[in-house]
Amino acid sequence: MFKQLQAELALSYNIHFNDVSLLEEALTQANYINEHPNYTGNDYQRLEFLGDAVMQQSTAVYLFKRYPEWDEGRLTELRISMVQTRAFAALSRELHLDQYVQLGRGEELSGARNRDSLLEDLWEAFIGALFLDQGQDVVMHFLGDIMFNKIDEGFYDRFVDYKSKLQEHLQRHGSVKITYTKLGERPVENNEQIFTVQVAVNDQVLATGEGKSTKEAEKVAARAAYQTLTKN
């Protein structure tokens, strides 16, 4: 089963595990071992512990070097959006770890293979295994290919509640009136609509945003307003 995953990793990321047992350990849940008494390997929990630490440090180092002009607050905010459950779960799916994990029958029946919390664990365990097998330089190169390059795509913005962050920022000195107003909509391909929304505080326009729904457009407007305000 793991030969196919090894082939995918080699083809897409030039990753070649020297110790394949580490890769198998990273993708084996404790319940699977409990149901297979003859299984001699370990579950992923220790590798998950290591991978969590590696991810925190690697991401912090990358952001520190990439954004020398950012203060601690901005660096921390982006790091938090990157090293959290939904982001790691998405990366696990991109690597197809959900397809290769060895689960117990009960976990399989309960839909654990699609559970974000499990996929987060698998990602961290995989990184822990890669670190032990290949070292920090390979981990950083791999993260650059699959994770760090997504910053410029706005990949991590989806995991941030910018409407709440904007509200907290604007109300840090007291209550203010925040309004979202739909300015219009226009048709695009496939009979879809693009909505335009503006966000204002005390009737002063802060930013506008577009999206395939009013809710999405509000989020885009809130993100633009928040990023402009905090940058200034």
UniProtKB/TrEMBL annotation:
Query: EC?
Result: 3.1.26.3
Major location (coarse):
cytoplasm
Keyword line: Cytoplasm, Endonuclease, Hydrolase, Magnesium, Metal-binding, mRNA processing, Nuclease, RNA-binding, rRNA processing, rRNA-binding, tRNA processing
Task: Quote the subunit structure annotation.
Answer: Homodimer.
Tell me the organism. Answer: Weissella cibaria
Detail which positions bind Mg(2+). 48, 121, 124
Query: What's its catalytic activity?
Result: Endonucleolytic cleavage to 5'-phosphomonoester
Q: Where is the protein localized? A: Cytoplasm
Q: Which cofactor does it need?
A: Mg(2+)
Domain called DRBM: residue spans? 161-231
Q: Which InterPro entries match?
A: dsRBD_dom (IPR014720), RNase_III (IPR011907), RNase_III_dom (IPR000999), RNase_III_sf (IPR036389)
**A single GO BP annotation from the record?**
rRNA processing
Q: Which GO terms describe its cellular component?
A: cytoplasm
**Which PANTHER family does the record match to this protein?**
RIBONUCLEASE 3, RIBONUCLEASE III
What does the sequence similarity comment in the record state about its family? Belongs to the ribonuclease III family.
Protein name (Swiss-Prot/TrEMBL): Ribonuclease 3
Q: Where is the active site?
A: 52, 124
Q: Which EC main class describes this enzyme?
A: hydrolase
